[in-house]
Structure to design on (298 residues):
DNA sequence: CCCGAGTGCTAGCAGTTGCAAGCACAGTGC
DNA sequence: GCACTGTGCTTGCAACTGCTAGCACTCGGG
């Protein structure tokens, strides 16, 4: 991490750690499940999940993936909170370009940069879409039954 | 990783490690830059980048982000290769661009023209290894100077 | 020949990640 | 009271990540 200023980077990392931890805790509370229940559903150890929620540890993307699965939210939502994925530019154009097998990665990036620049031109004051919390559907018995169909 | 069969999971993890490593190496070769140059651009140590490319180490998402920056491709492309992000299920680029309400018609056309031009380039120059002329733009001093403007 | 600059890699190490074992506490039923 | 089940957390440790110092090699110039 030589690129980072020593003091501010540490503060930033700590903040990011707390951000994803608090977000996970918030999602878990919203889902009304205990830390141990989530840990079991996610397939991670409960002490580790506890440490993550309190910002003491910084989980890998794989662990975030597992936690997302346990919470039944998208891994991407956690990645965004963890700062390893940008807010989705959103929309069919971005997805289509990314999925196009006829383009190289570099070409995709060039196209999307131009696309974004056009959008900025057209709507300079449009606010960015906020991360969604709609995935925090409460976990109930009824939900489990629906899950099995 | 208790959810996974022991033998197959190990094989799968190893494959994934080699996948992202080979992918990075391929992108680097396509960009015609040395391992050390990419390491410098990415802000990671060159021995570590070497180990990553050879599948000996499994980089974190943060490191992948840095490597993507050095390669000038999206971090998401690397995440997909690393198996921590799913391929977006997108529709055709043309349809998506045409349907995008954030763009003027002119902008749509410009984007689609560039898109088609890229595809043409790729069809004309595509051998089995699929290099791109855009991506294969040599990374020179001149480029660096242009980069800073 | 030597030297310098470049190449990719080896080896050892500090710090971090994720875990298992265990603790203290709360609530419930006998 | 006790035993049980559940809660979140502490601690120590093995494995891993990412680094630095250094190596061997190639190439070009003097």
């Amino acid at each position: 991490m030589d690129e980072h200023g020593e003091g501010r980077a540490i503060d930033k990392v700590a903040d990011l750690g707390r951000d994803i931890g608090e977000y996970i805790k918030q999602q878990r509370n919203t889902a009304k499940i205990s830390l141990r229940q989530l840990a079991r559903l996610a397939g991670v150890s409960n002490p580790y999940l506890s440490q993550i929620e309190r910002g003491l540890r910084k989980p890998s993307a794989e662990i975030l993936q597992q936690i997302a699965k346990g919470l039944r939210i998208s891994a991407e939502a956690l990645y965004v909170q963890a700062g390893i994925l940008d807010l989705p530019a959103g929309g069919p154009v971005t997805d289509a370009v990314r999925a196009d097998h006829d383009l190289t990665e570099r070409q995709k990036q060039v196209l999307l940069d131009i696309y974004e620049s056009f959008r900025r031109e057209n709507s300079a004051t449009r606010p960015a879409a906020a991360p969604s919390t709609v995935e925090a559907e409460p976990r109930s018995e009824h939900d489990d039954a629906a899950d099995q169909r």
